[in-house]
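For homework, think about our next protein:
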Amino acid sequence: MAKKCFPKAKQVTERFHVQKLATETLQDFSIKHRCEAIDLEKEELCKISFFECFQGPKHTSKLSDTEFAPF
C-alpha cells in the first residue's frame, strides 16, 4: 500500500527503532535464559534429600581423611 501511495519514497531505518528492537530482543533472551537457570536450580535442589538439607555438605578434614559435617 505504501508503494502505491508513495511510489518515490525511500525506505529508511532510524536509530531509535533499531535500538528499541535490539533492546527488546536482548531482554526477551535474558528473561528466557534466567527462567531456564531458575528451573535448573530448582531441579538440583529437589535432588537433595531432606537430611542433606539440614546436615550440610560433607567436607574432608585437612588433618585427617575422615568426613565430617560442619553443622
